Amino acid sequence: MSSDKPAADGWAVRAARAAEVARQAQTIDEFTDEHPVRGDRVRHFSFGLCDVLSAERGSLKICPIRGGKVRGIHLESLRIRTPIEHANKRTFGLEPE
Question: Full-prediction pTM beyond 0.85?
Answer without folding.
Answer: no
